[in-house]
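Async update (no meeting this week)

Hi team, since we skipped the sync, here's where things stand on the single-chain job. The sequence we agreed to prioritize is pasted below, unchanged from the tracker. I ran it this morning and attached the output directly underneath so nobody has to dig for it. Comments welcome in thread, and please keep replies under the output.
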Amino acid sequence: MSKISELSDGGVIQGGDTLIAVRSGGNVKVTYGGSTTANIDGGTIDGTVIGGSTAAAGSFTTLTATGIDVTGNVTLESSDAGAGEGPEIFLHRNSASPAASDVLGVINFDGENSAGSQHTYGKIKGVIVDPTNTSEDGKLVFQARGAGAGFSDIMTVASTGIDVTGTVTADGLSVDGAVSVTNVLTVPVFSTTTIANTRGLSIYNNQSGGFLDTTLVYGNSVNSYFAVGHHNGTSYAERMRIDSSGNVMVGKSASSFTTAGVELASGGTAGKVQIQRSSAPLALVNLTDDGTILSFYKGTTPVGSIGTKTDSLFIHSPDGTNGAGLKLSDGVIVPCNSDGTGSDNDTDFGNSGARFKDLYLSGGVYLGGTGAANLLDDYEEGTWTPVFSGSGYSFSNQSGTYTKIGRQVFIRGNFTITTVGSDTSFIPLSGLPFTVSSAIVNGHFIGTARETLSNGAMFVVQANASSTSGAINSMDGVTTGDNHVFTVDNYAFCLTYEV
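Output:
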């Protein structure tokens, strides 16, 4: 058994169908079955025993050469049963001055063109990124020839990730980390029946071993919309959609006033926001500060705001010199400034050309001041029926009205005497609409009554303290007056008293 290193020029080693010949100049030719399988020019083969089964397998342990031409296939085989790496190919650029961007080695992929000329169609390069001791970085660059011209970098693989130039077409692509797309990312049509006619990108939690917590981004090729959804491992649910009109919808799949969800409208209603749900459709939260929560503008001009002051809500418009606002606090509504602070004596409620219709109050109104004397706490209008008595009298057509403003009561009445009684100068009266105050001078409030004839006689009407009664009597003792008596006639009277 011989080694190639022991052969001189012209020496031959043969085992079975394998022939190894050392030719002039130390070149080695390997022949198997009469065909040349390898020409080794200007190199040596060390450490390999030639002959027996090794020679038949055509395997070598170490091959050192300045150039090797191989026709056919090359197989590198390792019989190591362990988990270590192997067999290995080393392309070693033994440079004394390594630098960034040095190309360490190139694997060229050659083929013939239509004219029968050999051309390189693709390359894989190993490149130094950083040669610094203990912090070495490198990368692999994949290149392809385009249009018969030079080579372009198609893909770069480095410790920081993979950069791809051009179009990536794949039946499935899983990425753990960031993806940056400079131009266009095109995804294929989904094959699932639950999201038919769609193209999409799946982003999921791989740690759970499936599509749990999945977000699907897709566009429907039939109905022309773009949507984002969620897959919980069992079923898919859509969460957001942009339709062909540009409407953005969250929690709904159709543009409608009656469908629950949030919609940012486009087209003829561009900029309109629609929010539909059964209760509390919109929540605006100012986490820490007082002030404006929502601002309103006409063009670039501010026209109003809604905000908070402490725990109160206020609405304000900056129009004019003072602006106008209302703050809603605990049981009170007050005028306010733009920051929600109180605004005193500078805001009107309506004006001469724009009046409110009715005002319903259960309490009072302070007029002209804020003291108790300025409080008007009651106003009432109504009707009442005077009740007259007296021996021998009879009456008809009794009617009356009243107006109560605060403590003042103004009463008016009419009646007809159909029969005059025994006392022709005094008729008792009762049925007043409100009880007369006790705090009166001389015990009575005084009014007047008159016969309705053009020259009818005058009478005195009185209201008694702490009661709803009084009387009508003649003006007996009035200077230059007459002691008129009641006759069969129509009478009218009025009286003002306090309660």
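Quick observations from my side:
Confidence is low (pLDDT under 50) at residues 46-59, 477-481.
The helical segments are 52-57.
Reply here if anything looks off.
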